[in-house]
Specification:
about 600 residues; alpha+beta; about 30% strand
Length: about 600
């Protein structure tokens, strides 16, 4: 029977003959053994980084005995150099075939040398390791690992299931962040006394682990009751928070808590067992605890557990996409733009439109439409295209064949000669047209009679609105902004209170890769249950009506420009990213406010 941790600690410290607190001893698997071939250790220095310019760092490479360097080999990367008596453990476990013959890469943090004897070097350890950005993963994957392969004639496996990464303290959070940002490169992680605290934003990770769609990672965490408790947080509690978040989200996670302090004693003692668990089943494909089955992730309320992103082929020469719009039949319209800059002349734009039917089959829809500034479907089911013509903005109507029909909405210049420059537009069922102008920080509403109402957004409140979308009941207009400090503004949209009572209502999560940057909000859409979907740098952030981010869906590519529901029953979610179109099936239904009567969702659960 395993004793509770508190009881075990008390017995260990009170009874003679039992292990004292934090008195962990490595076993025979961590000691050199007679008859076991020893791997080779190669020492090196890397001083050619562009990610961390001017730094130099020591690197030690472990080559297992008998390695065939011509074949791809699994690897395990460590921060802070050789730790956990790892080379001896590797020798013993590889000899018994308990782990694969892997290459160990032990990296010390960078140092910027002092310029004189009277100056201190700049020690990069905390800067590199405690950061939650993707800088270290970029350094590792684009600089150090390629350089080591070339210099030493090594061949690292590119299978993410054949790559593990580990670290202690700040090196531990560094190891996890590499796998978090690049699960396509590393999927096995060990952290001991990991620094998941408030130094450079890691204290936010337990919440992000719960909000972001689970990633294919296998993780082992170690900490102890006497771990650090400092100005930036409590390591013991932070590690427990991480483990509970991983478990809640359905990750394949194991932990070992003890009575140790902020050191590597306990981790070194259990390291052989950690390796056996991390590498179990290899070389078969890494099988995690199946987050789609075991996870409580809120996103599975919207996306079926077996749904995946699929690319939609856009025929012909499709240019960089910018806008999406759907009609109630589930047809999706996609705009594309090609820009040519002939010498010193002003840039020349060519625009095109494509239509994707409910089966996901795409075809060209209309030729050049001048410079498209936004797409939406109006109450008559016509595709509306905002485009500049001379000094005015015209919102054209296209019929089912892509031919201009009916009367365009004419929007005159504002502020003297400045013509409106929309990035997005939408229609209400009553025939109102709403659009934004990020350059002038303005929102526009055009009545069915053609009357134009504007809102000049004060720079100190909500500047640079990037997109517009109506709530399902069509009484609120939501607009993510470039300078909203990670918020989406909400204004009233009915005729009596047009653009009234604005609030920074939805609070978005910042991208851990660039936490000091703007959230990068662009396109947005809603579903019939009242959720708001916002394309951001960290993925599709999905908010409830109360303004809270419930979950985040990573996108197949960065820089998503727009999102929309289309397909059968408006239940297919589309993203337009870097000129490529992707779709994913959902359990919910989108809203085409121009063609659908207002929908009153249920009140949010608080």
């Amino acid at each position: 029977m395993r004793l509770p941790l508190f009881t075990a600690v008390m017995l260990a410290t009170a009874m003679p003959g039992l292990r004292g607190a934090d008195d962990y001893k490595p076993g025979p698997d961590s000691q050199p053994q007679a008859g076991v071939a020893k791997g080779e250790l190669i020492k090196d220095v890397f001083d050619n980084s562009q990610v961390y310019p001017g730094t130099s760092r020591e690197v030690t490479i472990y080559i297992p005995a008998g390695l065939d360097r011509s074949k791809p080999a699994p690897i395990m990367v460590f921060q802070d150099g050789i730790i956990y008596q790892a080379p001896a453990v590797f020798d013993n476990l590889i000899a018994r075939k308990e782990i694969p013959p892997l290459i160990g890469i032990f990296i010390k943090p960078g140092v910027l040398a002092a310029v004189s004897d009277n100056a201190l070097p700049r020690f990069n350890r905390s800067f590199e390791y405690d950061s939650v950005t993707d800088d270290y993963s970029r350094f590792l994957l684009t600089e150090l690992l390629p350089a080591l392969q070339v210099k030493h004639g090594l061949h690292f496996s590119e299978d993410p299931g054949a790559r593990a990464i580990a670290g202690s303290s700040s090196g531990g959070i560094c190891a996890f962040m590499v796998a978090w940002h690049r699960p396509d490169q590393f999927q096995r992680v060990f952290t001991n006394v990991g620094t998941y605290v408030g130094i450079h934003g890691a204290d936010k990770l337990p919440v992000l682990v719960r909000k972001v769609e689970p990633k294919p990672l296998r993780l082992f965490l170690q900490s102890g009751v006497n771990d650090n408790n400092l100005y930036c947080g409590d390591w013991w509690m932070a590690n427990q928070m991480m483990e509970r978040s991983f478990t809640w989200a359905g990750y394949d996670v194991k932990h070992e808590w003890g009575d140790g302090g902020h050191n590597q004693k306990h981790a070194t003692a259990i390291f052989p067992d950690v390796l056996r668990w991390l590498w179990k089943g290899y070389p078969n494909e890494l099988v995690t605890a199946n987050p789609r089955k075991d996870s409580k992730w809120r996103g599975y309320e919207v996306f079926p557990q077996d749904s995946q992103w699929e690319e939609v082929s856009l025929p012909g020469e499709f240019w960089g996409g910018a806008q999406l719009a759907a009609n109630v039949a589930g047809e999706l319209f996609v705009s594309g733009r090609k820009v040519e800059v002939p010498g010193d002349a002003p840039p020349h734009y060519e625009e095109g439109l494509w239509k994707v039917d409910v089966t996901g089959t795409a075809a060209p829809f209309a030729a050049s439409c001048k410079e498209i500034k936004g797409l939406a479907v109006d109450p008559q089911g016509r595709l509306r295209v905002a485009a500049w013509e001379h000094d005015a903005l015209r919102i054209l109507a296209l019929d089912e064949k892509g031919t201009e029909t009916g009367k365009a909405i004419e929007v005159p210049p504002v502020k003297g000669n400045d013509r409106p420059n929309p990035q997005d537009l939408c229609f209400s069922h009553a025939g109102w047209c709403y659009f934004n102008d990020a350059d002038q920080s303005m929102l526009f509403a055009v009545s069915p009679k053609g009357e134009v109402e504007t809102l000049q957004i004060p720079a100190d409140q909500f500047s640079k609105p990037e997109s517009v979308v109506l709530s399902p009941d069509q009484t609120l207009i939501y607009t993510p902004g470039e300078s909203y400090e990670g918020a989406v503004a909400s204004f009233q949209a009915d005729e009596r209170h047009l653009f009234a009572n604005g609030q920074r209502y939805f609070r978005l999560e910042r991208d851990t890769r660039r936490p000091m940057d703007n959230v990068g909000a662009t396109g947005s859409t809603v579903d019939a249950e009242g959720r708001l979907y916002v394309a951001t740098a960290s993925g599709i952030q999905v908010c409830d009506q109360a303004g809270r981010v419930n979950f985040i869906v990573p996108t197949p590519m960065d820089h998503v420009s727009d999102v929309a529901f289309a397909g059968k029953d408006l239940s297919t979610f589309y993203t337009l990213s870097e000129g490529r179109l992707f779709k994913r099936q959902t359990r919910v239904h989108g809203v085409v406010s121009g063609q659908q009567a207002p929908i009153k969702p249920a009140a949010p659960k608080l």
